[in-house]
Every structure is written in structure tokens, then in C-alpha cells.
Amino acid sequence: MKFPKNKKIYCAKCKKHTPHKCSIYKKGKDSMMAHGKRRLERKKVGYGSFPKPIQHNQCKVNKKTTPLYKCAECGHVQVGKAQRLKKFEILNK
Ligand SMILES: [Zn+2]
């Protein structure tokens, strides 16, 4: 699916329509100090003790892609609707 690089949409912070720049959301690095991660690391200690089932056969073909819209005036970032797409393309116009 093709997305325009610049789009004029409503900004909740400016309370009017402003030009927004489109980009793709990328997951940040996992924190080793998060509570869930610490709990998992503690459970993984020892022989034969991986607590969660490992999924091997995936039924979904595509991963979800989330577009981000950044306001050109105030820099407020809006999260767009996540969709399952084969190809995510940002048009340079
Ligand atoms: Zn704004």
C-alpha cells in the first residue's frame, strides 16, 4: 500500500488541520530491567524450564504495520491505524 509522505490531517494539539509527515513505527529495544523480563530470566534458570510455549507454525502471512504522523508545526506524533500489509511504501512527493 502506498502512503503519501506529507498529508494534511487534524492535529489535536494545534486544534486545526496541519501538514503531517508520515513514517513507520519501529519497536524499540527491550529493557532488561522491566519486571516481565526479570521474571522470565529468573524462570529460565535451570534444566528444562522455559515457561512459555514456543510457536513454530505461523498462520498469519503479513505482520502489522503502523504509520506515524508527525505534525510539522508542533511536532506532536499521532499513531495511525495498524494494517496487515505485504508492502508499505511512502511516496516521495
Ligand atoms: Zn500540531
Give keywords.
93 residues; mainly beta; Nuclear Transport Factor 2, Chain: A; four-stranded antiparallel β-sheet; two-stranded parallel ribbon; elongated; binds zinc ion; zinc; zinc-finger
Bound molecules: zinc ion
Q: Strands across the major sheet, in which order?
A: 2-3-5-6
Average of pLDDT: 91
What series of H and E elements makes up the topology? EEEHEEEEE
Number of helical runs? 1
At CATH level 2, the architecture of the domain at 1-26 and 63-93 is Roll
Which residues sit in consecutive blocks of at least 5 with pLDDT less than 50? none
CATH topology of the domain at 1-26 and 63-93: Nuclear Transport Factor 2, Chain: A
| Net shape | elongated
Q: Can you identify the CATH class of the domain at 1-26 and 63-93? A: Alpha Beta
Distance between the amino and carboxyl termini: 16 Å
Strand content: 35-45%
Q: What is Rg?
A: 19 Å
Kindly name the structural category: mainly beta
